[in-house]
Amino acid sequence: MRIRRRVPWLLLAAVAALFVPALGSRFYTFVAADVVILALFAVSLNLLLGYTGLVSFGHAAYFGVGAYTTGILMKKAAVPFLLAFPAAALMAGGLALVFGFFCVRLTKIYFAMLTLAFAQIVWAICFKWNDVTGGEQGMPEIPYPDLGWMERIPYFGQFRTSDHFYLLTVVTVAVCLAILHRVVGSPFGRMLTTIRENPERAEFIGVNVRRYELVAFVIAGAFAGLSGGLFGIFNRGVFPDFAYWPKSSEVLIMTILGGMGYFYGPAVGALVLLVLNQQITSYTEYWPAVLGTILVVLLFVFPGGIVGAIHAGWLRVTSTRRPEVAHRA
Amino acid sequence: MPDISFLFAQSLSGLTAAMFLFLIAAGLSLIFGVLRVLNFAHGSFYMVGAYLAYQVVQWAGTGPGRFWWAALGAAVGVAILGGLVERLLLRHLYGKEELYQLLFTYALVLVLSDAAKVIWGTQQLSVSRPPGLAGAFQLFGATIPYYNLFILLLGPAIALVFWLVLTRTRAGRLIRAAALDREMLGALGVDVSRLYTAVFVIGSFLAGLGGALVTPVKTIVPGMDVEIIVEAFIVVVIGGLGSFWGTFLGSLIYGQVLSFGILIFPRFSIFSVFALMAVVLILRPWGLLGRPLK
After folding, report:
1. Contact B111/A289, CB-based, under 8 Å?
2. What percent of chain A has pLDDT over 70?
3. pLDDT for res A48
4. Which helix (H) or strand (E) holds B142?
5. CA dihedral sign, ordered A176, A182, A186, A190
6. Mutation for B interface: A54, A102, A109, most B CBs within 10 A
7. Residue A266 confidence class, pLDDT cut points 50, 70, 90
8. What dihedral angle (degrees, nearest 10) is formed by the CA atoms of A66, A67, A69, A72?
9. Which of A8, A86, A255, B151 has the fewest CB atoms inside 10 Å of its own CB, making it the most exposed?
């Protein structure tokens, strides 16, 4: 057994993220908020992808539903954020329960196809149901939550409203990630890994595989909903694209890019992908081609993602043995 | 109640769309059936076929039969592209997780769509109908262009040829055997790796041909790749991934659901096809005419 020193990555990253507004650049704060929110989205997907071995091609559905839930409640019903935000998890989780009930009955490619079909249904509804979702035009001008109380907190008080929302986002996402971390480390999380490695054997020893998968699906959906809720406010609007399939593939790419064998891998993937996106789109309009090329290099050269490559390199430096790569390729 | 001629025209237009879809979906289904790879880039091959056909028509000027040469050239060009992709890249991902193969073909979608924008720009392009099929005729009060009639006949003809090849020739037997048990086929001394390339090339050829033949009825625009791949997925999922007649049936159902869905629920026609796909997946995940994977 190898003894590992535990590095409190989450705490370090969260504290660092809290100081971004102090740089005084609106742009940095904007990018950081984008990264933090999508990191939660990607980590929630990885509960399925990396831990349970379920390839969901429709995770954007829950992100979208969460965004619409918080957005509609705050804009149309003037519900305070404190209620509208958990409602996103409730709606997205509820939807994941219904869809997941059918999805977990299928295996492999059919699971992926059904998640995609359900997500497209959600998208089609958001796109066409003008009265509620604003249809194709989406729903602009989602209000910021009332964060006046932050002005009385030392450090926090100096910033503008958008920065206040950013700080709230960092704290919220950090709490969500801590919860998810606990989930994957719990006996429940271990059982998910067992199911990933060998569903037949898990079934064999009396585990209700479908039920475990369904619970994982609901948790992943609920946290995707929370990240969607935050994103709608950050983005100052909710649009049908949030639930469209390119969003699902984007979050898949983030997860793979960072490394789905690691808890924080997808968060690293979100950071790298969004920063690259910002940089490259300022030079060329052909971002998709660049993304495609990155993806090909990743699949052929670094199938363990960025964190996987760093981890393998680290093991090579610190041990004389051949590195045993801890995750599946 | 709308009159009969209108319903007739509507169902014919659904049928024409179905035949185009069948051309694309047949290749997608064939590749999945044998290689077990769900090829997202199939729609991109279709798009490249359309652009290549446009390009050849431009080069050919006013030569006789230029459209037919363009269609053939585009299909061959796309087949070569498919062969290169399979030989140089895709084959290194066999045996790895399905997700990697899926993401690889998705990467191709991204790269090819941008490549098409670089080469042909973003404006709409079009190709005129071949001179011999430019007119139209009346049937039960509906106006039917000769070109659509040609497509309506071509679809079943290709399906028939395909079916004969699959059931009556040695190559067809090998393809069906590979779909059932590739290890056994390899153990019996068949070069499965060459067979995979051949299947990928044939699938790509069909996609390129479909793209070329659609140019007289649809404008060529960026985004046509994604539009068709979503439709083709729905078709093969409904019919049964890897099932030949299932794909044909799926195309017919899709064409009719779409052309009548627009009449019945104008706002929710996209909804209706995805709902159909979900229902089929729930009740019969292997599709209407497919069989369960091992």
Report:
1. yes
2. 95
3. 93
4. strand B142-145
5. positive
6. A109
7. very high
8. 180
9. A8
Residue in A95, A98, A114, A297 to test binding to B, most B beta-carbons within 10 Å:
A114
Q: Would residue A58 count as lying in a domain?
A: yes
**Chain A stretch 133-192, residues whose beta carbon is closer than 8 A to a beta carbon of chain B:** none
Say what the ipTM of the complex is: 0.82
The total number of structural domains in chain A stands at 1
B279 vs B283: CA distance, rounded Å: 6
Is residue B249 a contact partner of residue B291, using CB atoms and an 8 Å limit? no
Q: Which residues of B touch A296 (CB under 8 A)?
A: 89, 104, 107, 111
pLDDT band at residue A47 using 50, 70 and 90 as cut-offs:
very high
Q: What is the pLDDT of residue A1?
A: 41
| More confident of the two residues B169 and A141 | B169
Where is mean pLDDT largest: A152-156, A271-275, B287-291?
A271-275
Higher pLDDT: A220 or A108? It is: A220
A298 located within any domain: no
A143-177 in b/e burial notation, b at 16+ Cβ within 10 A?
eebebeebeeeeebeebeebbbbbbbbbebbbebb
Nearest Cα to Cα of residue B256 among B241, B240, B276 = B276
Residue A82 domain flag: yes
Instruction: Please indicate if any CB of chain B lies within 8 Å of the CB of A132.
Output: no
Enter the tokens of residue A70.
Answer: 């918080």
Q: Are B104 and B90 in contact (CB under 8 A)?
A: yes
Establish if A300 touches chain B: CB-CB under 8 angstroms: yes
The model carries a pTM of: 0.86
A302 and chain B: CB distance < 8 Å anywhere? Answer: no
| A129, closest residue in chain B (CA to CA) | B267
The secondary structure element, H or E, covering residue A71 is helix A60-76
Task: Residue A43: give the domain boundaries.
Answer: 20-252
Q: Is 90 exceeded by the pLDDT of residue B208?
A: yes
- Distance, CA of A251 to CA of A266 (rounded, Å): 9
Q: Has residue A35 been placed in a domain?
A: yes
pLDDT at res. A271: 92
State the average pLDDT for chain A: 87
How many CB atoms sit inside 10 A of residue A242's CB? 25
Tokens of A86: 């958990």
- Token representation of residue A52: 């349970």
